[in-house]
Amino acid sequence: MGTQALQVIDQFPDRFEVEILSSFSNCDLLIQQALKYKPNAVVIVADTCYLQVKNALAKEDCKVFSGLKSLVDCMTMNSIDIVLSCIVGVAGLAPVYAAIENDIPVALANKETLVVAGELIMQKAKEKGVPIIPVDSEHSAIFQCLVGEAGNVVEKIILTASGGPFRGRSLAELEKVTCEQALKHPNWNMGNKITIDSATLMNKGLEVIEAKWLFNMNLDNIEVIVHPQSIIHSLVQFVDGSIKAQLGLPDMKLPIQYALTFPHRLTGSFPRFSFADYPTFTFEKPDLKSFPCLSLAYYASKEGGNKPCVLNAANEVAVTQFLSGKIKFTNIPETIEKALMNVPYSKPKTVDEYLELDGEVKVLTLKI
């Protein structure tokens, strides 16, 4: 997401200036980008990488910081006009909350922030009058469909899912899939964690929870439909029965650009969609028996309180264990369900409480 955002910025050098770049531990790429884009500051979250980045940028007019707290502190810089948050996992929560507290609009690609603490984040955004513009392709599609519809009642939101690399596989077949197979998404080029989430349909479950908070929708009015072509990115049905959809090639640069330039649409040079290349659109219901993660997400969101945080933390651990070859693909939902059943209900009220809970659940999930 970060590299694609920079490709968008390259299209409009007279409109955008990179103020801060951050990375967890990818030193080489961060250094390369900092030398090209000349940001005011860079943050390398992994402390062990700090000296490498600092030494490489010693001759540049660029501040170098390390640690997640430094990234949070950078959200106080009054030179920032918008923050694009695409950090993977719950690590995005504190920086996003800090940006909102400091009246900085957020282009949000880190869905876990709203999954874990949606009520807290949306309350703070409302209190501060800070816009949150979705960047996930599905939520960007909904957002675009709602432009010009102020005052009109939405009957249903329909999130589309590609179905991932294992669409149509039975539970027995999924027992044998490998990590390499799970990382081969048919339509999207994404990081490892989100690609596995897409394969289990947990990604769609997290998006359901995100949509609930972004668009103030009841879960019963959020539907998921599998659309293997990934051209219709999502749809909105209004009370008169009319449905609006947003279409386009599966390219994250489009929702990134829309978020950064909203409410304007600027001419882009990215490839265009042609109906002649896609003569058929197909749709099917998700297979909840083979892919129970979607049902687990609905359950956690309906329970509310700490349950979505538990869901997310357990999923992060389970995906990491699968990527490490320590558990099977089908163990991912089993592990998450056990965590959900073993953590008592509570209602965290602050970012620190959510982060403390996240850590506790991850320890428990490792034991599971």
Summarize the structure.
The protein has 2 domains: about 1-135, 3-Layer(aba) Sandwich (Rossmann fold), CATH 3.40.50; about 135-250 and about 275-365, Rna Polymerase Sigma Factor, Chain: A, CATH 1.10.1740.10. The chain is about 45% helix and about 10% strand. It has 16 helices and 10 strands.
Binned, the helix content reads 40-55%
SSE arrangement, N to C: HEHEHEHEHEHEHEHHHHEEEHHHHH
Instruction: Please give the oligomerization state of what you see.
Output: single chain
Q: What's the gyration radius in Å?
A: 20 Å
The total number of structural domains is 2
Mean pLDDT: 95
CATH class of the largest domain: Mainly Alpha
Structural class call reads alpha/beta
CATH fold field value of the largest domain: Rna Polymerase Sigma Factor, Chain: A
The number of distinct helices, counting runs of at least 4 residues, comes to: 16
Biggest sheet strand line-up:
8-7-9-10
Topology summary:
Blueprint: H1 2-11, E1 20-23, H2 27-37, E2 41-44, H3 50-56, E3 63-66, H4 68-74, E4 83-85, H5 93-101, E5 106-108, H6 112-128, E6 132-134, H7 137-146, E7 154-161, H8 171-174, H9 179-182, H10 192-200, H11 202-214, E8 222-226, E9 232-238, E10 243-247, H12 253-261, H13 293-303, H14 307-323, H15 331-342, H16 351-367
Overview of the molecule:
With 368 residues, the protein is α/β, with parallel strands linked by helices. It has helices at 2-11, 27-37, 50-56, 68-74, 93-101, 112-128, 137-146, 171-174, 179-182, 192-200, 202-214, 253-261, 293-303, 307-323, 331-342, 351-367, and strands spanning 20-23, 41-44, 63-66, 83-85, 106-108, 132-134, 154-161, 222-226, 232-238, 243-247. A 4-stranded mixed sheet has the order 8-7-9-10, covered by helices on one side. The protein has a 3-stranded parallel sheet with strand order 1-2-3, with helices on both faces. Helix 2 (27-37) links the parallel strand 1 and strand 2. The mean pLDDT is 95.
